[in-house]
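Weekly sync, protein design subgroup
Attendees: M.S., D.O., the rotation student, P.L. (late)

Item 1: inverse folding check
M.S. brought a backbone from last month's batch and wanted to see whether the design step gives back something sensible before we order anything. D.O. pointed out we never logged the input encoding, so this time it goes straight into the notes. Structure tokens as presented (474 positions):
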């Protein structure tokens, strides 16, 4: 998925032109990309989109046609357009691995370089990271709700355009949804593709049984029959059982059936009972129809016998309370070798200045207990005070019985990608392992335990000093 240099907001270009004209464009700058609140009123997010983002940075340049377009706008001077002709990203990026659990106020990406380089890439990086992280988070919530069940991504027709459909399939895989109906995503990313047939297939034949027989004849080893076109209990399921018997007589087995309407929990129990009585315990039951994590959890609690959940609209559009978008922002934290702070009357929206490390406190069982933001090379010790970034009056001490793991590492230096990207399967495995280490209460869909993020003594002191400096100047 390649990105044009013009995948940006106009103000990135006007600021860049202004920096160039005022001689600021080559001064060193550091930006953090982060969010303040986890989506879906949840406790965590799943970091995704890094591979796409690094490819964008590596390939960033302005083509002749793009420069011609900018010239026609009549906004930019010839000297600036000449500067853009050779513009490349030569900076440094620090980030967690894709599939890592991330939390509010901590930097996901840190981008270092000249002010021109680090500022200009803001919009594209937010576009890539915000969306893929949101989708991966939604997918993780779905897989947690499904428990032992599988989830298939069915959302292409409701996704935000063709590229959105590809990004959804990729990010959903990282979050745990390891198959898709999107054939192009299968080709591009190697994701297993799965699907059934539409109601129109059944309606194109004289009757339902004829339709099922025809489909089974075409796909004898991979048939999943949609059983609710007419009546699920009195028509669809009995006809599917008839076809299952006919397939077995020919040396094949019916793979599954799909429920797409009605009381899915009840119908899944009836379908399981009917197929078991008929001697087909291996037939899989697939459910679809506007599913999300809350519906899946409710079905699970009602004793649903669904094996596979096909989730489309609410995954592809990231629908849900507190969903729809990840509020990632991109803020300057160091400029011209000096820490920078955005000051606001709302402390929760004040930035956290300077270069930082993100350390994860892990207990003796390997479980995550809290994240700590500290200054580069700062040494933390048991008993050190740790401050809530949104309310410094709330604090706790660093426990002696935890070890600290660095969440992030450099992934790009001098505009060059440092490591080959892991496979999507490795990213998904990493996410699954991370979810197992999160406190159980933080996985709740409703009123989850808020995973704690704190700032270190030195970072707290720096922030307070910068706030007081701004107060004296205002």
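Designed sequence read out in the meeting:
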């Amino acid at each position: 998925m390649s990105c044009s240099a013009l995948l940006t907001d106009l103000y990135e270009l006007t600021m860049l032109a202004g920096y160039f004209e005022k001689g600021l464009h080559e001064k060193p700058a550091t930006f953090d990309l982060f969010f303040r609140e986890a989506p879906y009123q949840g406790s965590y997010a799943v970091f995704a989109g890094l591979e796409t983002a690094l490819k964008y940075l590596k390939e960033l340049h302005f083509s002749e046609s793009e420069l011609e377009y900018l010239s026609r706008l009549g906004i930019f001077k010839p000297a600036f357009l000449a500067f853009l002709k050779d513009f490349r990203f030569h900076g440094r990026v620090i980030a967690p691995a894709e599939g890592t659990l991330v939390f509010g106020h901590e930097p996901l990406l840190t981008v270092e370089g000249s002010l021109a380089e680090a500022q200009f890439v803001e919009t594209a990086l937010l576009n890539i990271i915000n969306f893929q992280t949101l989708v991966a988070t939604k997918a993780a919530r779905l897989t947690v709700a499904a428990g032992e069940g599988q989830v298939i991504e069915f959302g292409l027709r409701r996704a935000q355009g063709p590229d959105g459909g590809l990004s959804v399939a990729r990010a959903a895989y990282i979050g745990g949804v390891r198959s898709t109906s999107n054939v192009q995503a299968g080709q591009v990313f190697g994701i297993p593709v799965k699907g059934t047939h539409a109601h129109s297939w059944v309606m194109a034949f004289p009757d339902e049984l004829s339709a099922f027989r025809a489909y089974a004849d075409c796909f004898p080893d991979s048939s999943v029959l949609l059983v609710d076109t007419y009546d699920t209990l009195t028509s669809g399921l009995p006809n599917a059982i008839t076809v299952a018997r006919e397939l077995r007589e020919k040396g094949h087995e019916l793979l599954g059936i799909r429920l797409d309407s009605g009381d899915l929990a009840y119908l899944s129990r009836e379908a399981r009972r009917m197929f078991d009585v008929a001697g087909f315990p291996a037939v899989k039951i697939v459910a679809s129809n506007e599913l999300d994590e809350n519906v899946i959890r409710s079905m699970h609690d009602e004793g649903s016998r669904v094996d596979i959940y096909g989730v489309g609209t609410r995954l592809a559009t990231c629908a849900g309370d507190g969903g729809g978008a990840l509020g990632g922002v991109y803020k300057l934290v160091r400029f011209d070798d000096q820490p920078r702070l955005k000051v606001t009357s709302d402390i929760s929206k004040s930035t956290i200045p300077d270069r930082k490390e993100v350390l994860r406190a892990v207990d003796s069982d390997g479980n995550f207990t809290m994240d700590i933001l500290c200054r580069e090379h700062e040494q933390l010790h048991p008993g050190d005070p740790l401050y809530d970034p949104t309310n410094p009056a709330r604090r706790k001490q660093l426990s002696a019985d935890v070890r600290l793991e660095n969440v992030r590492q450099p992934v790009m230096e001098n505009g060059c990608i440092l490591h080959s990207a892991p496979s999507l399967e490795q990213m998904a495995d990493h996410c699954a392992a991370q979810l197992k280490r999160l406190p159980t209460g933080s996985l709740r869909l409703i009123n989850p335990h808020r995973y704690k993020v704190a700032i270190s003594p030195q970072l707290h002191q720096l922030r307070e000093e910068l706030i007081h400096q701004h107060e004296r100047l205002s």
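Discussion: The domain at 10-135+323-473 is CATH 3.20.140.10 (nicotinate phosphoribosyltransferase). DSSP finds 16 helices and 20 strands in the chain.
Action: P.L. to compare against the previous round before Friday.
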